[in-house]
Design brief:
globular, 305 residues, alpha/beta, 31% helix, Rossmann fold, seven-stranded parallel beta sheet, 9 helices
Length: 305
């Protein structure tokens, strides 16, 4: 006669083992599945969330369908566009970005950011007030403008002189107006994003021995794609409800950064200009201390090394 299994021993053995992490099953949307949005979608799908994702281009729907459960066209300039599906979601990442062009069209910026957020605001006003929602909005450290290299945290007054920065600041105000007892609003001001497909260090090294047609005395800021994705997840995990700079630890001028990269690679130094060649300038040593104080750590703290 076969003896029955010792269930007590079995339970004890299972208790000692690593328990599987079950998916949360949240319903989340990514409004704007560009470079960052797509990377977040991949991470969230692995966590088991049900995802909605938007794009402005119909030809991208098939590729987007591989990342999200419900791919959708979203055009902030089309009056037929609806965001009614957001009313019952647990979380939304707002990752709007204008199409890349060589010329900045301020009208396009207004339509993309302000028009899109107006549609989102209208949709969420119909949401039951007691239903919790986590919003994360991706903004830019460009809103600080030219601070002449000064140390800059989230309390600094934003630049209102350049029209693009004015639009980005207005977008931040619009998303913050949604904050309530049941709606958390986290705003990340991102540095220049680099990572797979955007190898900024390699691009800078390609200028070795040549001239970079930009002002090398300005201090830019950077963030790796991996850390941008991790920060978004961090915001959801910790119910963040404030504004944070999302940048790495690099706080040097463009000339200094390129010098270090070239020296490490054993290449001749590049020479940068000492005058601005564009009317929109970021020149600030942007601090990431506020986000780090919450326990967030960078996997790519520096572009050098």
């Amino acid at each position: 006669m076969t003896s029955s299994p010792d269930l007590t021993s079995l339970y004890q053995m299972l208790a000692k083992g690593q328990r599987p992490i079950l998916p949360s099953g949240e319903q989340r949307a990514i409004l704007g599945c560009g470079y960052v949005g797509q990377a977040v979608a991949k991470a969230w799908r692995q966590e088991g969330h049900e995802l909605w994702g938007t794009t402005t281009r119909r030809e991208r729907l098939a590729a987007l369908a591989e990342l999200v459960d419900t791919p959708m066209i979203f055009d902030s300039t089309d009056s037929r566009t609806s965001l009614s599906f957001t009313e019952g979601l647990d979380g939304i990442l707002v990752s709007f970005a204008p199409s890349k062009t060589s010329h900045v069209d301020i009208h396009h910026y207004r339509e993309t950011f302000l028009g899109g957020l107006k549609l989102l605001t209208d949709a969420l006003q119909k949401r039951p007030r007691e239903t919790p929602l986590q919003l994360v909005h991706l903004s830019s450290c460009g809103v600080y403008g030219n601070r002449h290299g000064a140390l800059t945290d989230e309390s600094v007054r934003l630049d209102s002189l350049h029209p693009v920065n004015e639009v980005l600041a207005m977008a931040e105000d619009m998303i913050q107006s949604l904050r309530s007892e049941s709606v958390n609003v986290c705003i990340f001001r991102l540095g220049g994003i680099y990572g797979p497909g955007r190898d900024i260090p390699a691009m800078l090294l390609s200028a070795a021995g040549g001239v970079v047609q930009r002002n090398g005395q300005n201090v830019p800021c950077w963030i790796h794609l991996d850390d941008a994705v991790r920060a978004v997840s961090f915001a959801f995990e910790h119910n963040l409800n404030d504004t944070y700079n999302l940048v790495n630890d690099t706080q040097c001028t463009g000339q200094e950064l390129t010098d270090r990269l070239c020296e490490q690679a054993g290449l001749p130094l590049a020479k940068w200009l000492t005058i601005d060649t564009t009317d929109r300038v970021l020149n600030a040593r942007v601090s990431n201390a506020k986000l780090k104080q919450l326990g967030f750590t960078l996997t790519h703290p520096s572009m050098v090394g």
